[in-house]
Amino acid sequence: MGGVSRRKSGVTIPILAGIIVTALCSVFVLQWQLRRRRRDNKLGGKGKPLCGSPEWNAKQEVQQGEGILVAVDENFNLELEDLLRASAYVIGKSRSGIVYKVVVARGPALAVRRMSDLDDVDYCGDELCLRRAFEAEATAIGRARHPNVVQLRAYYYASDEKLLIYDYIPSGNLHSALHGGQTSMPWAARLAILVGAARGLAYLHECSTRKWPHGKLKSSKILLGEDLRPFVSGFGIDRVQRNGGGMQKQGRLTMERAAAGYLAPEMRHVEAEPATQRGDVYAFGVLMMETATGRVADAGLEEWVRSAFREARPLSEVVDPALLKEVHAKRQVLAVFHIALGCTEWNPESRPRMRTVADSLERVGPAS
């Protein structure tokens, strides 16, 4: 009996040791998961995780004559006739089409982008293939769900009409707020807009279906909702147009964007350079400079700011004069400029990722 007892005790020690090691490993794994979850939660906005929320509600398709109306949100229950009967006002025009504010009899106002077919290229050879390509890209846009990204509610496809139907964001855009308003925007509001826009763009880069680079980021693409909450808009449009029956000439777009000052150096002299996340980071850096200086983002803004810091000029010569009275914001303004300078490094590999930019802006100071 004693021999048997000793054998049991000799077996028990390794088993207990194994249990302890397993328990310790579980604790370490749990701690690592909690740390990672806390890190991911920072960028979601108002306590929501960057990539953790559901992105997709079931599609609802309704045949409308020769076309098809697809609701990508379960709460969207309008029919095409409702949209056609609604009052519509042009609120924007671009090479990709016309954007209307549509006021329907029931429900909130909508923004409807009527796509234009430019430089048509028949990639597929038949209408069914073109429709499927358009729907695939529009569906991918519809999957993007984030508090700082404009929400696609539905889309309509017909051979002669293509519509993208979004939430209507009521308070204009950052460009108008900075350059067209009668009153100056205070620094706290500007910082909050930058933080929210960075969150939204980081989400598109890391969590959206396509891991989208925006490609056309500028201050007019940051829409402002109630309480100046920012929404990134305009992402995915080029892919929809290119794969859904139309194609924009990249060379012309490159020249237009270079003149605006947002285009990264590596993309300025290439006819059809595809959009990149690093290019978005550069554009966001210029957007931060625009927000802090109050100057329009022309082709010389980035170099003007960089030379000012290289020459150690006083902050009063660089910052928007309307902010000079906000002495308490000096540290935050300087921090934003330094983040912007990192984003606009000429070497793309030297630029941070958007997640890092958003983290850095979060640390600058309190912003809602």
Write the layout of secondary structure elements.
Layout: H1 2-41, E1 60-64, E2 67-71, H2 80-85, E3 87-94, E4 97-103, E5 110-115, H3 127-142, E6 152-158, E7 161-167, H4 174-179, H5 187-206, E8 222-224, E9 230-232, H6 237-243, H7 250-260, H8 277-293, H9 301-310, H10 330-343, H11 354-364
Antiparallel strand pairs: 1-2, 2-6, 3-4, 4-5, 5-7, 6-7, 8-9
Helix pairs in contact: 3-6, 5-8, 5-11, 8-10, 10-11
Briefly, what is this?
This protein has about 375 residues and is of the alpha+beta class.
How would you explain this protein's 3D organization?
There is one protein chain. A hairpin with a 6-residue loop joins strand 4 (97-103) and strand 5 (110-115). A 7-stranded antiparallel sheet has the order 1-2-6-7-5-4-3. The termini are far apart. The protein folds into 2 domains: 60-167, Phosphorylase Kinase, domain 1 (2-Layer Sandwich); 174-364, Transferase(Phosphotransferase) domain 1 (Transferase(Phosphotransferase), domain 1), CATH 1.10.510. The protein is globular and about 65 Å long. It contains 11 helices and 9 strands. It has helices at residues 2-41, 80-85, 127-142, 174-179, 187-206, 237-243, 250-260, 277-293, 301-310, 330-343, 354-364, and strands spanning 60-64, 67-71, 87-94, 97-103, 110-115, 152-158, 161-167, 222-224, 230-232. Mean pLDDT is 80; it is low at 1-42, 118-122 and 245-255. The protein is of the alpha+beta class and 368 residues long. One of its GO terms (molecular function) is protein kinase activity. This is Protein kinase domain-containing protein. Residues 85-364 form the Protein kinase domain. InterPro entries: Kinase-like_dom_sf (IPR011009), PRK1-6/SRF4-like (IPR046959), Prot_kinase_dom (IPR000719), Ser-Thr/Tyr_kinase_cat_dom (IPR001245).
